[in-house]
Design brief:
The chain has 65 residues and is an alpha+beta fold. The chain has a domain of 43 residues. Helix content is 25%, strand content 26%. The chain is built from 2 helices and 2 strands, in the order ββαα. The chain has a two-stranded antiparallel sheet. A hairpin with a 4-residue loop joins β1 and β2. It starts with 10 loop residues before the first strand and ends in a 12-residue tail after the last helix.
C-alpha cells in the first residue's frame, strides 16, 4: 500500500496491516506544519506517533496519563 500519490507534504500516516490478508485494518492520517528541525528530532516524532496511536485499536478506552 502506498500513500505517496497525492499526499500533501507534512502528512504523517500510520497503517496497520493484517499480514495474513495483506490488507489495511487501520489507518491514521494527520497533518501539521513540521519544521525541518522537528523532522530530525526523533523525540518529537515519537511523541507525534504516540498521539496518533492513542486511537488504536479503534474503540479502545483511552489510558490515563
Amino acid at each position: 500500500m502506498s500513500a505517496s500519490r497525492n499526499t500533501p507534504r507534512d502528512t504523517f500516516i500510520i497503517d496497520m496491516i493484517d499480514p495474513d490478508e495483506n490488507a489495511s485494518v487501520w489507518r491514521s492520517v494527520t497533518q501539521s506544519k513540521l519544521k525541518d528541525a522537528t523532522i530530525r528530532d526523533q523525540a518529537a516524532l515519537d511523541s507525534a506517533a504516540m498521539r496518533v496511536l492513542a486511537g488504536f485499536p479503534p474503540g479502545a478506552m483511552p489510558t490515563s496519563p
